[in-house]
Amino acid sequence: MATSKKRAKRISKSHKKVGLPPGTMTYVGNKESSELIIEVYNYTPEGVTHKDCTTVEDAVAFLATDAVTWVNLNGLFHVKAIEELGKSVGMHPLQLEDVVNVNHRPKIEELTKGGLFVILKMLYYNEANELIIEHISLVFKDNTVISFQEDDKDVFDIIRQRIKEPRGVIRNKQADYLLFAIMDAVIDHYFLILETLGDKIEVLEDQLIYNPTDNLVGEIQQLKREVLKIRRSIYPLREVVGNLEKAEHPSISDDTQKYFRDLYDHTIQVIETIETYRDMLWGLMDMYMSSVSNKMNNVMKVLTIIATIFIPLTFIVGVYGMNFENMPELHYQNGYYIVWIVMLVIFLAMLYYFKRKKWL
Amino acid sequence: MATSKKRAKRISKSHKKVGLPPGTMTYVGNKESSELIIEVYNYTPEGVTHKDCTTVEDAVAFLATDAVTWVNLNGLFHVKAIEELGKSVGMHPLQLEDVVNVNHRPKIEELTKGGLFVILKMLYYNEANELIIEHISLVFKDNTVISFQEDDKDVFDIIRQRIKEPRGVIRNKQADYLLFAIMDAVIDHYFLILETLGDKIEVLEDQLIYNPTDNLVGEIQQLKREVLKIRRSIYPLREVVGNLEKAEHPSISDDTQKYFRDLYDHTIQVIETIETYRDMLWGLMDMYMSSVSNKMNNVMKVLTIIATIFIPLTFIVGVYGMNFENMPELHYQNGYYIVWIVMLVIFLAMLYYFKRKKWL
Amino acid sequence: MATSKKRAKRISKSHKKVGLPPGTMTYVGNKESSELIIEVYNYTPEGVTHKDCTTVEDAVAFLATDAVTWVNLNGLFHVKAIEELGKSVGMHPLQLEDVVNVNHRPKIEELTKGGLFVILKMLYYNEANELIIEHISLVFKDNTVISFQEDDKDVFDIIRQRIKEPRGVIRNKQADYLLFAIMDAVIDHYFLILETLGDKIEVLEDQLIYNPTDNLVGEIQQLKREVLKIRRSIYPLREVVGNLEKAEHPSISDDTQKYFRDLYDHTIQVIETIETYRDMLWGLMDMYMSSVSNKMNNVMKVLTIIATIFIPLTFIVGVYGMNFENMPELHYQNGYYIVWIVMLVIFLAMLYYFKRKKWL
Amino acid sequence: MATSKKRAKRISKSHKKVGLPPGTMTYVGNKESSELIIEVYNYTPEGVTHKDCTTVEDAVAFLATDAVTWVNLNGLFHVKAIEELGKSVGMHPLQLEDVVNVNHRPKIEELTKGGLFVILKMLYYNEANELIIEHISLVFKDNTVISFQEDDKDVFDIIRQRIKEPRGVIRNKQADYLLFAIMDAVIDHYFLILETLGDKIEVLEDQLIYNPTDNLVGEIQQLKREVLKIRRSIYPLREVVGNLEKAEHPSISDDTQKYFRDLYDHTIQVIETIETYRDMLWGLMDMYMSSVSNKMNNVMKVLTIIATIFIPLTFIVGVYGMNFENMPELHYQNGYYIVWIVMLVIFLAMLYYFKRKKWL
Amino acid sequence: MATSKKRAKRISKSHKKVGLPPGTMTYVGNKESSELIIEVYNYTPEGVTHKDCTTVEDAVAFLATDAVTWVNLNGLFHVKAIEELGKSVGMHPLQLEDVVNVNHRPKIEELTKGGLFVILKMLYYNEANELIIEHISLVFKDNTVISFQEDDKDVFDIIRQRIKEPRGVIRNKQADYLLFAIMDAVIDHYFLILETLGDKIEVLEDQLIYNPTDNLVGEIQQLKREVLKIRRSIYPLREVVGNLEKAEHPSISDDTQKYFRDLYDHTIQVIETIETYRDMLWGLMDMYMSSVSNKMNNVMKVLTIIATIFIPLTFIVGVYGMNFENMPELHYQNGYYIVWIVMLVIFLAMLYYFKRKKWL
Q1: Is residue B74 domain-shared with residue B17, that is, in the same domain?
Q2: For residues B164-184, average pLDDT
Q3: How confident is the model at residue E157 (pLDDT cuts 50, 70, 90)?
Q4: For a FRET experiment, which of D93, E162, E191, E324 has its CA 20 to 30 Å from that of E64?
């Protein structure tokens, strides 16, 4: 339930935006408390400088160097800082608007004066095991990559580590490879999400077989919704990564393009897996429905067996409970025993009948 | 029900049109009482003139000026005025026919002598919470945008405000930006519709889980129909906005084209959301069906438990209600108590059986 | 049922054709009694000549004039006349075959020596309210349009009227506009069909909600089949009209092409409506199934309530109907009344239980 | 059942082929007993020679003549003869392999040295009313058409007749027309198949309405499978015939291409019909399921009415069957009659209740 | 169950990989125990050399010869050896990564310095009758084909045999034909898989008709999942083989391309068959659901018949079990017999009613 409540809240916020002129930057997410931290990595094959700036000016200062620079801004609530930083690399107001519009779908665009603007969705499960979809924007220009993210939780630790390693591949490559590395980190993390999802589906399936309960349908539905959400976040990636793989962007070297081709393969694989999960969830729903039908069938069988056996017998004993004056059988010495025998025969005949019908 | 009644009425009207020669302007909507008001905004970066004209001549007079002019005509019932106004900017009779044919789907066309003709659908919920689909036509030519709408209720107040603000972006741009601004206002409003729809779906889902009633299926069906209607109104927009984004219309500047690209992103997002809602509604129907099955299952279980326990017991008491002369048990001192004990044992055995079957 | 019988008959006839060499004209429809009438309209802006010819020669005589000529042949059974007439404008034997093959799908083809050959389906409901699909072929060459139709019932009266009006648009245009006018009359009529269909769906929906009966499923099925048939007749039109709108046929003027563009919009709208109806019919089937389930649920509830209340009570009275000698309760002064009180308590407890379960 | 057994057998055979080098000709069908007959028709507008050869040499001798030659080989079991004949017109080993691989899907290919190679499926119902799918390969080169078929049953008798008629169109055309004529004969026969199928669906539908039995679902399933099989055989034809219609094969004259265009129309019509049948069969399954639900509903109603009426009455008579000493009613003069009246009132009240609920 | 357990394990492993820099070779499969064996075949039309090398150096030595060389490496666990071997033919690190990433989907890529890199899936059922999907990579460069496979079980024995045969086609062709032969062996084996699957579906169908049990739904579900997995492995092949058939790879001769065209036909056929199986499995689920409903119907009928017959009779005998003082019927001489006759009449009337309703 928690997830759907959350979604409701997010959507409600999004209409803050309706009615504003285009190009107005409005953060429509709900992570407002985060403080402004601009993480900067400035590296050459020879060395790395790492600094956590708190003002945009500090960060922008690094852009002028010859080294590759990664500027990572946390907290889309800091609209002013984002605008300042974005304008320093020549972003269009409409693009700046998209950076903070967390409902925007993944896309790729060229900057007006050269360079690329990419929107992605970062997926992870939080501590409460809810699926979090975070909005990430990347700007790549010359020897700089700027990343804007909603929260200070991310999947980029591996990149930070690799940048710090003197012999890391990343240190010897240009900023286009850094762009790839960040996108790769995001998309690689999808596999973890898919794995968790796959495990959930399997657990559900086992429960359906060994212990089907009424609320399973709610859980299937919940998973379906999760798959739907993931699908919406991932589907447009096909186009985004496909564009990087196929189009000739002058700022992306042939060598790096090979890496994007590899990333494209991963994207397709993620999409195919999510489709398979979708099919499997539909299958689960079918299994659930048939298990419900089977249970009902079994309930009915028990009722039918008991009723079919005892209703006729109750009739018989009713007959000899009548108070007619003239009922010869009542006076027979063995009348009572004969009735018992008759009833036993009926009882056994019924059992045999049900046995043959495979109801027992 | 109200909505479907309405639809019936509208369709019935549409056949007024069958049999007329093409190019005949016939208003097939049902908002006939509205008075003719032609709202004119004539603005330059320096100043704005606003006038509510009541004759076409007054409005046309503004077109000759160098300033950007927005002419907004309310009431498609005023066929004559529309024809006059349309011809003044060189519209084709077939296009004039489409302006008043409220069933026409969204489209974009070029005017014969330069300029663009766009049909959109404006969606809003009225006071009775019914979804209203209003037919809007836009004509863009030189420094003029003409909008034709069915009713005087619209979503353009934000544009009126922005035009009046001396420093507004809109004041410093040409008519192509005005065209964008109007389309943007319409499409931005879709997000509000989607939000309302999303809330309705959530409420339904909660009801399905906590308080499923028989008439929920009617409400799901109603929502499905609403989604179907919205979808039909929005789908063709992909093509319309896509055309403005991609094609090279000489009258649309490169700068404005960027805004249309942004609008295209929004359109795609609206379409994707509506598709997701569709999937969710199908899921709800599944949930409903399985909830109905589960309820039936529970009803059956109660019946089966009661019947299975008491039918055999009733048989036993029936046996000792027989009137045979020779029934030794009847004369036992503790016969009655023994029967009670036997019945108690059967009763407990049954309870245990149902417990093990997890029916209790 | 009538419709499906009819279809059976038509299909049965179609195999008369199997085994004949291609280009053999065989009328496979079932309207054989109609007499040969060749209606000819020959008009210029100045005047009209109208004649109902009974021989092909009479009709062909008009073709040589400079005026626009519309030749309308009723009765596809008159294979010889069709052949003669067709050959006079240079039709290929295969095209002549298609004129009388009423099962042929809509298409557009060029004539060998210039001109166009179009196949359409005319839909109408007959007096028995059955959907009739009539096969219509149009040949357009120079200043002539020839139409071949199965029956003398048609939707062309408005064209006849307009030709007779001296100031009608049609009188001032060439034969390409006449071709458009005929196709427009056919396609405009589809809207009436869709309206009737929409009304039927609504009536069904109301019945499903207020008075669901067993045979509604048959009616839903019947409508589905009707939608399927209409869809098959209309779908290929997208291509046919699209071709006229897009391709550059030298014999179609730019001005008329605009009208075909308008017709194309209508065609798309018809197709979209039919698709919506299809979705709605599927929804109805779902509603029906859930209404059946709900009814069953209610039946089961009544049974369960009655049985659950009275079966235990019947057991109790059974107990005191036993004939044991030693049953102390039977001799209590108020035994009988105590039993009644006990039973009343059980009865009320049951009622409370069902109330809480919301079964009452 | 028979059909599915057969299919099992055929598939089992197909794995004879797995593991053989490509280009190895292995007949995987199950019609092994047929004798080698090579039917040859050699004709010009002036005259026809017809001979049933038993050796390939005899047949090949005709190929050198200037006349059009049709060589028809029955029995794909005669791998050697097929190889010899195929090589005489320059077929590739892989194409020869496809001639005898009866599981191969329809396709069209060019021969290495000019000419065309076409694979089709011939469908017919055999005497046991089973759907037979026969594999047919056609080779067209210069003035020769060679056809390879599995069995001596075929649909080519009409072609044989037409060749023998001195004034037949076929006699005056080249071999490309013969290729068309053979393909036309095969595809025309599909209409007969569709007709039979349509009749079967109608019969099923009538049975579903008037006399639904349990095994209807098996028959629907059987028809679905048949439709699936036909679909698989016919779908690739779209591409095959489309290629002949559109591509410019130098050996096919413009005139004949018109005939292929006609054939293409027929192919599309066959495919559309099969799709309609598929939709109808799904609809039948829905009807069946709802008819089952309705029947269950009726069964439940009968049970509920009887039980609801008599269970309370039985309780009442049980009350007065109790043996309490002090039961005043028992001693009333009219106690018995009063009870009867009470029961009658209850009975009538129940009837009224059920009437109002429309269960009676 | 076993299969799904397995899958869970494999997926779990795959996240070993998340977080590693791209180009890092990590074997994510679970066949780690296999020893390194590099099988080398070096052949010309004149002779064959076969050697099982244990070091990469031994194998690489053969590559320099003019003869065609097939290097087959078993065991993807040997990452070092694979890297060494791969680099000797100029593979990119990303391609080497894909060789050991057993979850990678089938694809085709060019090597940086000429040559092709192909990923396939080899399918077989193991002894436990589980479907095994093995990851196979092929590298083709100049006169060499290198194949990397997970396990020492494979489907290549026929190729080994054919290489050893002095007159085999393969001996007289170049390495491009060897590439084809290996892919052909893999794809040909799919037909065996499909056959087994087809047999399983048929067995299930027979069981559904003759002996439907509750756990059939689990088996249908299992098969659906298997079809889903196969589909995912085979679908991308369309593109892979299609590329080889259509694109002009300079290293693939025209002659061999014909073989790839043939392989493409087979691939399409495999895909079509798997789609048919999918449709059939959905049909089975429908059959299962309707069989469950029918069984429930029959259970209900038995209950209803018994209850409907005996409940009224029990009421009657209850009436005459009452203890009213004044009940005249009790004193009739033949009262008892008359009651029996009345009950018999009711009994027979009921039977007749059920007979007419076709419940008996």
Answers
A1: yes
A2: 90
A3: confident
A4: E162
For D197, D205, D216, D225, E290, the CA distances from D202, given in Å and listed in that order, are 9, 5, 13, 17, 21
Q: Give contacts of B 332-351 with C, CB under 8 A.
A: 332-336, 339
Domain identity same for A280 and A332: no
E28 and E98 in a single domain? The answer is yes
Segment A240-263 shows an average pLDDT of: 90
Helices (H), D211-334: 216-246, 254-319
Identify whether residues B217 and B317 lie together within a single domain.
no
Could you tell me the end-to-end alpha-carbon distance of chain A, in angstroms, rounded to an integer? 42
* Range in A19-33, A284-298, B175-189 with the lowest mean pLDDT: A19-33
ipTM of the complex: 0.77
Note whether E197 and A245 are within 8 A (CB).
no
Are C276 and C316 found together in one domain?
A: no
Q: What is the pLDDT of residue E16?
A: 52
Average pLDDT over residues A61-89: 91
CATH number for C144: 3.30.460.20
CB atoms closer than 10 angstroms to residue C231: 18
Q: Are residues D304 and D286 in the same domain?
A: no
Give the pair of three-digit tokens for residue B266. Answer: 């929004």
Pair B203, B212: CB distance under 8 Å: no
Last residue of a domain, one of A290, A317, A338: A290
Domain boundary among E265, E290, E315: E290
E strand map for chain D: 37-43, 48-53, 68-74, 107-110, 116-125, 131-141, 144-149
CA dihedral (B302, B303, B307, B310) positive or negative: positive
- Whether A35 and A173 map to the same domain: the answer is yes
CATH of the domain at E317: 1.20.58.340
Helices then strands, each counted (H, E), chain A: 10, 7
User: Which residues in C258-286 are b (16+ Cβ under 10 Å) and which e?
Assistant: bbbbbbbbbbbbbbebbebbbebbebbbb
CB contact under 8 A, E321 and D321: yes
Which residues of chain B from 164 to 223 reach within 8 Å of chain A, CB to CB? 168-170, 180-181, 184, 188-189, 191-192, 194-195, 198-199, 202, 205, 209
Residues C230 and C334 in one domain: no
Span of A5-19, A314-328, C117-131, D236-250 with lowest mean pLDDT: A5-19
Distance (Å, whole) CA D155 – CA C207: 51
A293 touches chain B (CB under 8 A): yes
* Number of other residues whose CB lies within 10 A of the CB of residue A140: 27
Residue type, B209: I
For the whole model, what pTM was predicted? Answer: 0.82
Helix (H) or strand (E) holding C41: strand C37-43
The total number of structural domains in chain A stands at 2
Listed ranges A214-223, C147-156, E44-53; the one with the highest mean pLDDT: E44-53
CB within 8 Å: C334 and D326: yes
- Residue C276 in contact with residue B232, Cβ under 8 Å? yes
What pLDDT, in 10s, does the model give residues D41-100? 999 998 899 999 988 999 999 988 889 999 999 888 888 999 999 999 999 989 999 999
pLDDT band at A279 (very low <50, low <70, confident <90, very high): confident
> Which residues contact residue B257 at a Cβ distance below 8 angstroms, ignoring those fewer than 6 apart?
B244, B245
E266 within 8 A of E238, measured Cβ to Cβ: no
**Residue A27, CA distances (Å) to A76, A80, B95 in order:** 6, 11, 41
In the prediction, which pLDDT does B218 show? 83
Distance of CA A189 to CAs A173, A202, B184, C154, C354, Å? 23, 20, 36, 65, 52
Q: Which domain holds residue B67?
A: 2-290
Q: Minimal CA–CA distance to D115: which of D85, D88, D141, D146?
A: D141
Q: Which of A107, A232, A310 has the CB atom closest to B265's CB atom? A: A107
Measured distance CA(C293)–CA(D35) in Å, rounded:
61
